[in-house]
Structure formats: structure tokens, C-alpha cells
Amino acid sequence: MEIVKQLKQIVIILLVFAVVNLCLLSFQSYQMTKYGRVVNFSGIVRGASQKLVKNELSNYPKDQEIEKINAIIQGLIKGDKTLDLPLVKNKIFQVKISIVQEKWTDLKAEIIAFREGKSTKQQLLQISEDFWIVTNDATFAAENTASSHIQSLRKLYLVLFLINLTVLTFVWKINKKISLNIKDRIRAEISLKSSEEKFQQLANNINEVFWMTDINFREIIYVSPAYEKIWGKTCESLYLDINQWKNSIYPQDVSFFDRVLENFLINQEETFDLEYRILSSDNQIYWIHHRGFLIKNIENQAYRIAGIAEDITQKKNIEICLREELKQTILLQTITKKIRASLEIETILNNTAHILAIKMKIDSCLIYTYIGDDQFQLNLIGTNINKNIRHYDFLNQLDKDDSYLKRIIDEDKAVVINKIEEEPLLISNQHLLQAENIKSLLTIRTSYKQNINGVIELHQYDKIHNWQPKDIKLIEAVASQLGIAIAQANLLAENKKQLEKLNQQNIQLQEKSKQAEAANKAKTNFLANMSHEIRTPLNAILGFSDLLSQKIIDPENVNHLQSIIFSSNNLLALINDIFELIRLESGIVKVESETVNLTEIIRQIYYKFSEKANQKNIKLIVNLNKNIPDILEFDKLKLYQIINNLLSNAIKFTKLGSVKVDVWGNYFQSDLKTRQENCSIVIRIKDTGIGISQEKQKIIFDRFTQVSQETNREYEGIGLGLTLTQKMIQLLEGNLKLESELEKGTTITVTLPHLNIIQLSNQKALNLITETQLTTQEQKNIGQQKKLVLSNYQNS
């Protein structure tokens, strides 16, 4: 209504404004036309005056032009309606036009005189020029007057334009406001229409029932089409009778529904929420979740009730199934705990039979263990039987080829029989069950890793038992757990047997170990005695050979005697090595710690092998690092043997070049001033001998092994040196590293860790024993050379 009023006002304003504009425009047009005519007529007079000057009017026989000019002049002075000339009130123009009139009067008299011959042309021309001048002056005055009037009209037009602009602006603003209101209303109407359409579409397509009633819940105002799908009745029937809704409620839920709804209506609560059952038109039970709420007006007063009714039958069925599954799970957990409470097979099976009989409400539960393969055997161990029923193990009455029994053994699922007389598998055995009055039967195997290890058998005597899916699912789960338990119990029994067997074997091994220890002790005693018995004659041979060497002069006999001495020494060395190796392997040899001067040992070994190196014309080089401790705590004899054996091998297998010995110490901290309590000694012996191939390096430390048969023949020896050396290094908790290349030489590095330092001086006595290569001439003075080297060593 407000918009209509505003539109009416605008129409009235525009009509008034149009009329005023029309009047003003007409007046302006009229005024401009009148003053324009004044200018036009003034122009006619001026034109006529020009003609007079040119002596044109005076020659006309008629006076029409003169009369016309006369009428115009009179109209300009007094105004003339016939000529539509206004009375110009401008004083200047009136003065000017009066002068024109005077001149015109003189000119007319002169024209008449000229025509009558009373005046000359010269006089007429003079008066004409005067008339022309004043008419020009009057004309310009008329133009100025008209221009001033037109200017005034233009100002009026400008004012009118501004007024028009103001009015139009005001109208535009009002129109804009109205248009915005109209647009808002149109949008609101469109939105409302769209919402109504969407609501209608939503209500027609959603599965929930949307409804609306009056405040007292006595009349249905709206109900969505989903009502027909769930309730199976038409919406029109509900519009006619709202009690149809209440009449469909499941009888046991009516009182609950009335109580909730009554409480909602009396207390005017904001919402209500309840679940109940209904009976549809086809007598199917549906679960409904019902939610309602109040609708209030702008005065905050409730005038409608609306709500949503949802079919939750499927959800409820799932909840019921889950609840049943939870019960089954708890029951299964109880049975599983009972099963796992013991590792004794009889206890396990009896506990399981007892629980199944009670929980499944059956008359008899029998549990067998199964032994297959070559022998077929079912051993009944677990039982739970009603006191009024006789024990009857049906499965043991069947032949092993019976189809019913074979199906139980072959299939990993329950064999369910509700009625004995209707089961085809029991045709040949029905009389056995009927004789015992057994009505229903359920049997399932237990297995572990798909291998059967037992059977569960359930009997119902007094009535037919319809086995439910949940019961079958439970018994299958129990069978799975029981199969694992039987397998574990069997495994435990087998482990016990194995343990007993192992204990018996351990007793036997301990006895044999004692015997072996006694035999080993006897062998050690035998070897010790044999060592003494073998060395005694060899020492006699060596002693008498030494005495004979002083008396025999004959060269041939001397050679024979030297052969005897040489062979005896080799034999004694071989026997010593063999017995030393046996002692090392048997663990008889112990580490004997004593103070050791490593420098002195190296010097002794150097002097021992320097002459042999000179004889083979090879260099023997010894480098002792300055950081070697003065005195160490170590097994002196074994250290000597290790260096001696390695250096002996290096010289033996080197024909040309050199043998170099490097000795240095490794400390946990490099600063010698800290005086570390222990260190590692590294001994490296490098030669330029025949070398060892990669294949032979794997076996070089094996006893009685040399690189090849040719090496054995050329260099003698039986291959015990490196074996003994490695055994002694291992005994001393050290390690040996071999690096060699065929025909290029061998490097052996021995590391002896964690040696106790007894003495470590600030300045070391020895840097190295310089390289020594004795020439042929120097070999003659070998004694002097030895003294020279020793002197240099001591002085350094």
C-alpha cells in the first residue's frame, strides 16, 4: 500500500509539472515569436528604406509598398493585432520609431513632390538616405529589445530547466527507492516461491515424513507423501482423521507415546523426541523415530506443531543384531577363557562341554579328539550329559567309511540336523538315534591349519531343537578356538615327551663327557710321557754326534755326521712343533705373563737371522718406532716364537730383495705424556718373496699345508709354522692379517692388543736398525760388522 501511495504522488507531481512546463513553453514560444516579428517588420522597413535610397519606390506607379511600410511603422508604434505586432514598451525603441515616423512623413511628402515635379531627385535621395539611417537605427533598437526579451526568456528557461532537473532528481530518487522495494518484494516472492517448490520437492522425495498440525494436535495441516510409503495409507485419509496415526501405533507402545505427547502439550516444551513401533497396513512392524517442535508467530506465541517421522527399522534391526553379536562375543570370550585356562587336554574339553551344554540349553555335549592318517580313532574325552539321559557316543558307533562321518571330517563347518528322520545322511543309522530317543543333532569338527584334530557332538533328546544361525555361528567359533587349544595341548604333550627324551640324552651325554674328559686327560698324560720318551733318545743322538764331531777328521765321515746332526735337529723341531700344536688345541698351554723388553727380543731375532739373510744376499731391515714402551707385561716365550716363525718363513721364501720388520705401538690417546697404562703392539713383516695366490691364502694356515708340492720339495718343512703362530696369536687375543700377491711378496701384520705397560721413557733408545746389505768383502769381516751394528743400536 505504501508503494501505491508513493506512485500516486509521483504521478500527480509529474502531471502538474507537465502542465506548468507546457504553459511556460507556450508563453516563451509566443513571446519569442512576437519579438521576432518585430525584428522582421523592422527589417522590412529597413529594406524599403534601401529601395528608396535606390530610388525604386518613387518610380512605382502604385503606392502599395508605401502603404505597407506606413502600416508597419504604425503597427511598430502602436501595435497591431492584424499584423500580430506587440506594443513595444521599450522607451529607446519608441523614440527611435517616432523619429522613423517623422522621417517617413517627410519622405512621403517628398515622394509626392518628386512625382509632381516639384522636387528634384537630388532632394529625394537626400531625404531617402536620412530615412534609411533612422530606420537602421530603429531596426537595431528593435533587435536589441527583442534580444533582451529573448535573454530574459532564456534565463527563465534556465530556471525552468533547473526546476525540472530538481523535480526529476527527486522523482528519480523516489522511483529508485520504489524500484528497490519492488525488486526486494519480487526477490522475496521468487525466493518464497522457490522455497515452496523446493520444500514441496523435498517433502515429496525424502524418506522422512514431514508433518504439521494445529497447536492441540487435533488436525493435520500438512503431511508429506512419505507417509504413504511407511504407513501404507493415503495422506487424504490422515487429513480426514488424525487418530489414524495413533491407531497404527504398536499396542505395547501406545501408553508411552501418549505420555510423551501429553507432557509436550501441557508443559509447552520446545521439542519432543521418541521412538516407537507401528503396524503398517500389511501388518509389518516398523520402528519410527519421531521428533516434533513448536512453531511460534512474531508475538512468540505457539500456533503450530511440526515434526519429522523417520523409519529406523533397519537401524534398529542392526542394533538388535549387534546386541546379539555382543552377547555371542561375550559368551565366546567366556568359553575361550575356560579353554585357555588350562593346558591339560581333558580339562579343556570337559570345561568346553560344560559351558556349551549350559549356554545352548542342550541335553548332551560330547567332545572327541581325532587321530587320523594310518589309524582312524575318535577318543571321547570331554562330556556334559543331563542326569536323566544315558551316555551315548554316536560317532563311535559308525563305520569310518560312513557318509555322515566322512562329511564331518571333510568339511570345516557345522553339520546341522533339526529332525533326525528327515536327514538323508542318517538313513542307515536312524534306528541307532531313535533307539536312544535323540531328536536333533549338531556336529562339527575342530581343526588347526585345516587339519582335523577333534569333533564336537551336540544332542537334543526331549524335543526337536531348531538350531538358530547365531547358535551355529557360536559353535563354529568355539570349534575354531578349541582346535587351536587341542593343537597347543598336543604340542605341549609332544614337547614334554621331547623334553624327557632330551633330559635322558643329556644324562647320557654328561656320562660320555666325563668319559671323554678322562680319555683326554689320559691322552695328555700319554703325550707328555711320549714327548719325554722321544726327546730323550734324540738328545742322546745329538749329544754323541757333537762329541764325535770333535774326533772325526775324515771329510766323508764328517759329512755323514753333519747329516745325522741336521736330521736330528729337524726331527726334534718337528716333534716340538707337533706337541706344541697338540698342547695349544687341547687348551693345556696357558699365557705366562712376565716383564718383556720388546727391543731386546727384536735385537736377538735380528742377530739370529742376519747371517742367514746375508748368505742369501737379501736385505734384513728392522724399524722400531720411538713410541714402543721400554718394558711390557707379556708372554715372552710366545712373543719370541711368533716373531721367530714369521721372520723365518719370510727369509725362507725370499730369494731376492728384502725382508722388512716394522714394530710400533698404538695408544688410546696419542699424547705419550699421559703415560697410558696399556697399548697395542703391531708387528708387520714384509718380504719380496714368492708370494701366495688368492686361492692358497684360504688354506695356508691349515696344519701340514704349504703352497704347493713343489714348494714343499724346494723349501722343506711340513707346514706347521703358520698354524702354530696363528694358534698362539689367538691364545694371546691378538689377530693376524695376511696380504700377498703371487711373485710379488707377502705382508703379515700381527696386532697384540691391551698389553700392560711397565716402563715408558721420555726418550726412546731406538729409532730403527738401519738397512744392512753385506757385500762379499764384508762377509769376511762378519764379526766386526755385527759389533758395528750393535754399537750403532746402543748409541742411538
Secondary structure: elements and pairs:
Layout lengths: L1 H52 L10 H15 L12 H26 L4 H85 L3 E6 L5 E4 L2 H6 L3 H6 L2 H5 L6 H14 L3 E9 L5 E12 L5 E10 L1 H28 L4 H15 L4 E8 L5 E9 L17 H8 L4 E3 L12 H6 L4 E9 L2 E10 L8 H83 L3 H32 L7 E3 L1 H18 L3 E6 L6 E4 L1 H17 L5 E9 L11 E10 L6 H4 L11 H7 L5 H11 L3 E7 L3 E15 L8 E2 L6 H5 L1 H14 L1
Helix pairs in contact: 1-2, 1-4, 2-3, 3-4, 9-10, 9-13, 10-13, 13-14, 14-19, 15-16, 16-19
Number of helices: 21
By CATH, the topology of the largest domain is Beta-Lactamase
Please report the first level of CATH classification, the CATH class of the largest domain.
Alpha Beta
CATH superfamily heading of the largest domain: GAF domain
User: Which structural class best describes the helix and strand composition?
Assistant: alpha+beta
| Sheet of most strands | 8 strands, mixed
N-end to C-end Cα span: 130 Å
Description:
In the N-terminal section; belongs to the phytochrome family. The chain crosses the membrane at residues 6-27, 156-174. Residues 272-324 form the PAC domain. With 796 residues, the chain is α+β, with helices and mostly antiparallel strands. It has 4 domains: 1-155, Up-down Bundle (Four Helix Bundle (Hemerythrin (Met), subunit A)), CATH 1.20.120; 206-320, 2-Layer Sandwich (Beta-Lactamase), CATH 3.30.450.20; 346-589, Beta-Lactamase; 591-782, Heat Shock Protein 90, CATH 3.30.565. It contains 21 helices and 18 strands. It starts with a helix and ends with a helix.
